[in-house]
């Protein structure tokens, strides 16, 4: 979990890291495996051929490496971080495009989980949609394992945050419940 500390403030506690299920990366994984297969099949004939064939081979190999790097970055950094103070959504699109969105618990208006389609039904995966007050956008991550459990965890932490927030407003001292994750 150390790789996510750059998204978490010093005074926050990281409670859980929710990753997309590998089912969510199947399309990209299929493309990478297909490119690796084609590149390996063509390597012998292209490398022994003319200069144009060698250039085509190296372009195909470079494209394969690029797609593999994009997939690796997506798998590594597309996460939903649940801290004791807020939700942080990290969306990695490609190698050089990352969007980080956060929502403080007292701004969250709705947490919805859903399962749609045969793949999500059989794998037990689904999606989480978090809407916030005063924002046109929502936080969504799909597919995740046990979306209902993730929703319950977020609600529990949000309730604990609200309890702590209200106690601090009244001048009382209260702590968050024991961490899970």
Please give a structural write-up:
- With 181 residues, the protein is α+β, with helices and mostly antiparallel strands.
- It has two domains: 27-73; 78-170, PH-domain like (Roll), CATH 2.30.29.
- Helices cover 44% and strands 28% of the residues.
- It has four helices and seven strands.
- It has helices at residues 26-47, 51-77, 117-123, 147-170; strands spanning 14-19, 79-83, 86-93, 97-104, 108-114, 125-132, 138-145.
- A four-stranded antiparallel sheet has the order 1-2-3-4.
- Strand 6 (125-132) and strand 7 form a beta hairpin.
- Helix 1 packs antiparallel against helix 2.
- The mean pLDDT is 82.
Question: How many separate domains?
Answer: 2
The CATH fourth-level homologous superfamily of the largest domain = Pleckstrin-homology domain (PH domain)/Phosphotyrosine-binding domain (PTB)
Number of helices: 4
CATH class of the largest domain: Mainly Beta
How would a crystallographer describe the biggest sheet? 4 strands, antiparallel
**CATH fold name of the largest domain, please?**
PH-domain like
Low-confidence runs (pLDDT<50, min 5 residues)? Answer: none
In whole angstroms, the N-to-C terminal distance is 11 Å
SSE string: EHHEEEEHEEH
Gross geometry: elongated
Question: Mean of residue pLDDT?
Answer: 82
Task: Kindly provide the radius of gyration, computed on alpha-carbon positions and rounded to a whole number of angstroms.
Answer: 22 Å
Q: Give helix % range.
A: 40-55%
Class by alpha and beta content? alpha+beta
CATH architecture group name of the largest domain = Roll
Strand content: 25-35%
Give the strand order, joined by hyphens, for the main sheet: 1-2-3-4
Total count of strands: 7
């Amino acid at each position: 979990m150390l790789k996510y500390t750059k998204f978490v403030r010093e005074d926050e506690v990281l409670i859980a890291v929710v990753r997309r299920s590998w089912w969510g990366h199947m399309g990209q994984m299929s493309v990478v495996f297909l490119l690796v297969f084609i590149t390996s099949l063509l390597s012998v004939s292209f490398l022994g051929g003319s200069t144009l064939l060698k250039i085509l081979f190296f372009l195909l190999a470079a494209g394969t490496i690029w797609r593999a790097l994009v997939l690796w970055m997506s798998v590594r950094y597309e996460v939903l971080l649940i801290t004791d103070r807020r939700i942080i959504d990290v969306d990695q699109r490609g190698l050089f495009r990352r969007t980080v969105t956060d929502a403080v618990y007292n701004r969250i208006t709705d947490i919805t989980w859903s399962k749609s389609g045969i793949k999500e039904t059989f794998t037990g995966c689904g999606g989480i949609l978090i809407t916030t007050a005063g924002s046109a956008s929502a936080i969504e991550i799909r597919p995740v394992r046990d979306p209902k459990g993730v929703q319950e965890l977020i609600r529990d932490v949000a309730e604990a945050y609200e309890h702590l927030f209200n106690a601090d407003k009244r001048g009382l001292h209260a702590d968050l419940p024991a961490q899970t994750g």
